[in-house]
Amino acid sequence: MVEGPAADLGLSDGEWPEPIRSDWSVDRSGEQVTARGEIHATARLDCVRCLKSFDLALEVPVVVHADRAGRGRHPEQEGDLERDDYMRFHDGRQVELGEDVREALLLEVPMAPSCRVDCRGLCPRCGAELNEGPCGCATESRA
Question: Could you tell me which InterPro entries the record lists for this protein (predicted)?
């Protein structure tokens, strides 16, 4: 188990209130390394319907394949491949996984987060929070 603050991944501690944890297994076949992991994190989001802040637990599977650096390629080619996210490289002792963890977490966050499936949101006329009950607009419209 690896655990650390969101800031270690270049993420805001305010948006990721708890330490980010991950479990990994690593397999090696010749010069190729495959790291398989599961990331456990909590994202603090704002509901797009009612605008309230809520925490969303995330469990994200990740698989990273890395090849040994310097295997007949020029260093600038490896830099281009890694920068374009086509491949990862290792030096024989270490594979840097931080950017892969960061990317997996950001891709898992919903684009339009909702605090719950049945969130009723805000009244478009008066702005009342409809999860707390009906607003006065509904009765005024009928009169």
Answer: YceD
